[in-house]
């Protein structure tokens, strides 16, 4: 067996491992990006703990096919940048920002989120969704609001009782 074939098999195994360890994998078509633009994009991904890579489409397709996923066969054509993300939304959001900044250079293709294929329109919706942490913070904030309001009411009632008791004490004195 040739060393080239062995190297490709290793890359396919690497891709499969990254897919399995990621909550989302996002694909975009990139055209005529300058070195500076690619570097800036890579830095944004790095800061967000997202891995940005460019693999050969045939190797990506083989990795997905080995995992039993064939939905990406048509999407994996032309130049494809891939982002392996530890959460569901971060990579889609970063790519959405890049699309707004460079609409003619970056074109969304699709994504693989929690074991499911997400098309172009779903990818846009995914980018607009709040992250899991944002949703948890909102939920905790809404749960905390009634308790804080109740504590405020009790505090005002106690303050009223103290004021009334002080007024009575002053009248007696």
From TrEMBL:
It holds the Pfam family Ribosomal_L10. Transmembrane segments: none annotated. GO terms for biological process: translation. The keyword Cell inner membrane does not apply. SUPFAM superfamilies: Ribosomal protein L10-like. It comes from the Bacteria. GO terms for molecular function: large ribosomal subunit rRNA binding. Keywords: Ribonucleoprotein, Ribosomal protein, RNA-binding, rRNA-binding. One of its GO terms (cellular component) is ribonucleoprotein complex. Belongs to the universal ribosomal protein uL10 family. PANTHER family: 39S RIBOSOMAL PROTEIN L10, MITOCHONDRIAL. Forms part of the ribosomal stalk, playing a central role in the interaction of the ribosome with GTP-bound translation factors. Part of the ribosomal stalk of the 50S ribosomal subunit. The N-terminus interacts with L11 and the large rRNA to form the base of the stalk. The C-terminus forms an elongated spine to which L12 dimers bind in a sequential fashion forming a multimeric L10(L12)X complex. NCBIfam families: PRK00099.1-1. This is Large ribosomal subunit protein uL10. It comes from Candidatus Borkfalkia ceftriaxoniphila. The lineage of its organism: Bacteria, Bacillati, Bacillota, Clostridia, Christensenellales.
């Amino acid at each position: 067996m040739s060393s080239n074939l062995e190297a490709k098999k290793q890359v396919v195994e690497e891709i499969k491992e990254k897919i399995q360890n990621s909550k989302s994998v996002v694909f975009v078509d990139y055209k005529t990006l300058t070195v500076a633009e690619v570097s800036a994009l890579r830095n944004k991904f790095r800061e967000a703990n997202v891995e940005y890579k460019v693999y050969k489409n045939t190797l990506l397709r083989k990795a997905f096919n080995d995992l039993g996923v064939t939905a990406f066969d048509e999407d994996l054509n032309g130049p494809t940048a891939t982002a392996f993300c530890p959460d569901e939304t971060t990579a889609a959001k970063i790519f959405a920002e890049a699309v707004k900044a460079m609409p003619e250079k970056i074109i969304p293709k699709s994504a693989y989120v929690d074991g499911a294929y997400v098309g172009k329109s779903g990818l846009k919706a995914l980018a607009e969704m709040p992250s899991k942490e944002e949703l948890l913070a909102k939920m905790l904030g809404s749960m905390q609001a009634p308790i804080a309001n109740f504590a405020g009411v009790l505090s005002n009632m106690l303050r009223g009782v103290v004021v009334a008791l002080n007024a009575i004490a002053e009248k007696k004195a």
